[in-house]
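User: structure tokens for Cell volume regulation protein A, please.
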Amino acid sequence: MIQEILESNQFIMLMALLLIVSIIVTKFSSRLGVPSLVLFIAVGMLVGNDGLGFIYFDNPEIAQLIGVIALIVILFEGGMLTKWKDIRPVVAPSITLATVGVVLTTSIVALAAKFILHIGWFEAFLVGSIVGSTDAAAVFAVLKGKNVRPKLEATLEAESGTNDPMAVFLTIAFIQLLTIDQVNLFGLVGSFFWQMGAGLVVGAGIGYLASLSLNRINLDSSGLYPLFALGFAFLSYSSSSLLQASGLLAVYVTAVVIGNAELAYRYSILRFHEGFGWMAQILMFIILGLFVSPTEVFTWPVMVDGLLIALVLIFIARPVATLLSLAGFSFTMKEVYFLSWAGLRGAVPIVLAIFPMLAGIQNSQLIFNVVFFTVLTSALVQGSSITWIAERFKLVSDKLGNPIHSLELISIGKANVEMIEFDVTERNIVVGQTLEDMELPDRALINAIIRDGDVITPYGQTEIKAGDTLYILVARKNKKEVKKLLEAIKEEEAEHEKSRA
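Assistant: Done. Predicted tokens:
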């Protein structure tokens, strides 16, 4: 009994140290120019059986389960931060990249894998299918805070959030072709369209239900609202999966619907899921690092094969697929090249690479090792240079948007008021106005202004200046009216924005 308690305490301490080290690692990832997911994987490999030997883990079923659960959390957090007004103009090119682009990438990589790995055609296409899609977790993590043009950022996020059905469909299709004597190809194609269509419908429906519930059900504590929202994320995935549709697509759509709705406790929900999303990323990549065997991956044959496939993927397959997929859309060649370069591979290919193991496919270990090394190469080469490419091609935005945050006042309880936090820029109409000039609703009051790091107590003659941060107490029913007033921009800025679009 005492021995079991001691072992449990040691395991808890190890988990605490892993969490602390992983969070500290994120601080150095930006300084080193290396995506944090690579460092998380390195931490997992370090403490694994082939490293320091602290944790022995080789269960593909558990690795897949943890990977899927983590992807649900990451997709949900990323989807809630996605603005519909940004992705609406790029829905068509994003869907084209997520479908046609994935098929083209798969085909080109399969052709290379056939001759590089010396495997059969179906196995080669299986490799192509696994690495054919971009990864939402990697894309969301790398683009966060990079100030890439909204059009390009929205395209990449929408593509990575919607291309999982095609990747899963192709992976399962070629596994079936390898394991089943007679496969109904028409049934497979019909299954893909069902996965996409039903996933969209289920995601939108549960997203609407979640938004309605979050606003109309009064819970005793504001801390319950983020968990309530998370429950709908898992409901969306499970409902869609039980209907044989795409669960990950449903989760992303649910998150977009919730994120673009007026929520009573938006700030609490977003802040919780930001932290929980990081937790999911850390857990997922550490588990994947534990699952991989460095002594098998980092051998010359695997590294050479993985590097060759990565080079084909990065410099041939993805660029060709992006160029052909976006041929009919209004993207410049610089934008097409950037979208090609920013198509990161991450957790999804690694999780999909576990599928052949579960199915008992011949050469499944080779496929997993090569895919793992390919993903690492993609993350290191592409992920560490995205900012440099964007700046070199002058694809960095001017930070035109104003983030509006709502701070829920817990102490007010059921008073139905919120504190809006708004950053003022030169383009806003309110710049130069005094508080008396601003036509705020009756139940709205500017409580404080942060200017140059100092807190200013506002009064009627206080003038609003660019760079100010306003804190406005407002009744929830007047929140839309206040947001509309704050977000209004000068006429010349509106014309400039239209010309940029």
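User: Anything notable?

Assistant: Residues 409-413 have pLDDT under 50 and may be disordered.
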